[in-house]
Amino acid sequence: MDRLTLFGLFAVTAMLVCYALESRGPGFILAFAASCLLGSAYGFLQGAWPFGLVEAIWSLVALRRWWRASSHGSCKNPLRPA
Questions:
Q1: Is residue 18 part of a domain?
Q2: Is pLDDT larger for residue 23 or for residue 73?
Q3: Which of 7, 15, 43, 68 gives a 20 to 30 Å CA spacing to 52?
Q4: Number of domains the chain contains
Q5: The pTM of the whole model exceeds 0.70
């Protein structure tokens, strides 16, 4: 397995983990957005530009969700008292 493939595996695994934990707080939504950017970079580096483009769009969507969640407090953080 080459370094590019390992990078892609890391990016997609990070996306999955962050997506699964999004309900725990806005920080995980932001981490999901960042991991989507990593996935986008992987797609472009691999030569699969449609994948890279879609992941870049997903990153923008996640950033918007993070902005709304952090400014409106719509995500509940079980570690933060109400």
A1: no
A2: 23
A3: 68
A4: 1
A5: yes
